[in-house]
Amino acid sequence: MKRTMFKPIHRRGFAATLAGLALLAGTALPSFAQPAPVKAELTVRASQPGPTIAPEIYGQFAEHLGRSIYEGLWVGPDSSIPNTRGLRNDVVDALKKMKVPVLRWPGGCFADEYNWRDGVGPRAERPVRVNTTWGGVGEDNAFGTHEFFDLVEMLGTKAYVNGNLGTGTPREMAEWIEYMTSDTKSTLAEERRKNGRDKPWKLDYFGVGNETWGCGGGMRPEYAADLHRHYVTFVRKAGGRNGPQEFASGSNDKDYNFTEVMMREAGKAMDGLTLHYYTLPTGDWKKKGPATGFNEDQWISTLSRTLQMETIIKGHAAAMDKYDPQKRVGMIIDEWGTWYDVEPGTNPGFLYQQNTLRDALVAAVNFHIFQQHADRVKMTNIAQMVNVLQAMILTDKEKMLLTPTYHVFEMFNVHQGAAYIPVDIKAPDYSHAGFTVPAVHAGASRDASGTLHLTLANLDPNRPASVSAKLEGASARKISGRVLTGPAMDTRNSFDQPHQIQPVAFNGAKGRGDSLTIDLPAKSVVVLTIE
User: What one-character DSSP code corresponds to residue 248?
Assistant: First the structure.
């Protein structure tokens, strides 16, 4: 996405709040109450399609952390909460509607201490361990390999399993691969059959370790590269011809040297290299900032810091290109999203946080960035799916709600598997508290039927945006859309009011032929279907 900046315009928030309230109520404000919109121009270059946007860019992550697995996904077959074989029906149904393309499990840092054998066999006989990474609570291993693949098959998604490089052995890793994928009469395959699964599962992706630079072993990149080459040798033997794609544990944030060493020393022994980057409002891990009740300073600081994903991807891509100019090795951003201070009164090791309109804007911006780099970025997995960090779904015993982030994932699933379409943007900046971000962010794709999908985000919380769009290589006969917004920067759903924020029909786009005009509300996400 290219953009040209105009002179920054100062903002005031009261009128925009009124505008948001009126929008949700479906009424129009008198003209004197409306702040002047910022002006932006888009050129959608439909005549210059780029690479296919891998559906896996919209991937999910579920770790044994807090209430992500237990209560969030798994309640057990004897629960009073409606379930199918122990997996709660309301959450599974919601995830199906979101079209989850791939699910990463069991961690994360949890994977670095996980022995897969703890999670197979009769549940009553499985050992209880202490989750030393997340909260020091008991882990009874009721949710293991069979339960994970049951969930994968219910969702119709792909399986991404993360192996234990931190405390495990090559034999342990290879035997897990064999247990999951072998169609032979080996002892491990027969054990799987005895435990209730005759046919092997389809294991699409396997992570050889996690955060080797941190919780996965505190390794130097040279040692991590050697260890990857060691372990993956036996993973590939166990998987055979139909084995999974193997991912190496890669870098964090802007540590480009880690990526370069991994590619130089082990690039030929991997199908993908992982990258982690979290967005903190303050940039300070000791005091990250609240999930709700924040002011405009933390609204813009969050957006500014999440936009650094563009710089980070470019830096790591340059290191990868040096050793893999053909882009055979995918960049796998398997942990990303917002990370705030935990909700007051909750276990700090459970990483439970509310989810607001701000998170919806963060998701939209990152998707546009990922799509722009679809030639290298082949998968991302937001952290995490349920009840942890930037979650899609929050639960409280039998109650469930969908977050603003969920709605962006659902709105943007039109881009999955479509051709990336470049978008040039001329827009003013939104500046506040020493931070500057583009007022309007956008992305586009064209699906197999020829339908064009344009997604836009207005990052300014105070002013609407008037966008003039030019379509090159396309013509608009019919336009439909949806919008996600709210009256406040921290508009959110609660268990008492679970439908405070959700997408509604958008009628602010007009045009014919190759020209469109789009009126974006302040702090909003819009998806347009152009036929």
Answer: E
Question: At CB < 8 A and 24+ separation, what contacts does 84-90 make?
Answer: 84/154, 85/147, 85/150, 86/142, 86/143, 86/147, 87/147, 87/150, 87/151, 87/154, 88/395, 88/400, 90/400
pTM above 0.85, yes or no: yes
Same-domain pairing of 258 and 334:
yes
Specify whether 69 is located in the same domain as 156.
yes
Q: Confirm whether 147 is a catalytic residue.
A: no
The count of domains in the chain is: 2
Do 135 and 222 belong together in one domain? yes
Active-site residue among 113, 175, 335, 410? 335
Query: Cα 418–424–428 angle (5° rounding)?
Result: 130
- Least confident range from 5-9, 159-163, 315-319, 333-337: namely 5-9
Cβ-contact 395, 71 below 8 angstroms: yes
Q: Cα–Cα distances in Å, from 218 out to 165, 211, 248, 399, 466?
A: 12, 8, 15, 39, 49
Check which CATH number belongs to the domain holding 513 and give it: 2.60.40.1180
pLDDT digits (tens, 9 = 90+) for 360-409: 999 999 999 999 999 999 999 999 999 999 999 999 999 999 999 999 99
User: What is the mean pLDDT of the segment spanning 471-477?
Assistant: 92
Q: Is 176 helix (H, G, I), strand (E, B) or coil?
A: helix
User: Among positive and negative, which fits the CA dihedral 19, 520, 293, 346?
Assistant: positive
Residues shown for the chain: 531
Residues with Cβ < 8 Å from 124, sequence gap 6 or more?
none
- What would the pLDDT profile of 447-457 be if each residue is shown by its tens digit? 999 999 999 99
| Alpha-helical segments (H) within 197-247 | 221-239
Looking at residue 33, its pLDDT comes to: 58
Domain span at residue 250 reads 55-417
Asked if the model's pLDDT at residue 3 lies above 60, the reply is no
Q: Are residues 361 and 295 part of one domain?
A: yes
Tell whether 354 and 430 lie within a shared domain: no
Q: Are residues 356 and 475 in the same domain?
A: no
Average per-residue pLDDT for the chain: 93
Please say which residue of 368, 389, 417 terminates a domain.
Answer: 417
Q: Can 335 be counted among the known catalytic residues?
A: yes
Q: Which helix (DSSP H) or strand (DSSP E) does residue 45 occupy?
A: strand 38-45
Give the end of a domain, one of 417, 433, 462: 417
Question: In terms of DSSP H, where are the helices of 184-307?
Answer: 187-194, 221-239, 256-266, 296-306
Amino acid at 111: A
Q: Residue 97 and residue 329: Cα distance in Å, rounded?
A: 30
Choice among 211, 246, 260, 265 that is catalytic: 211
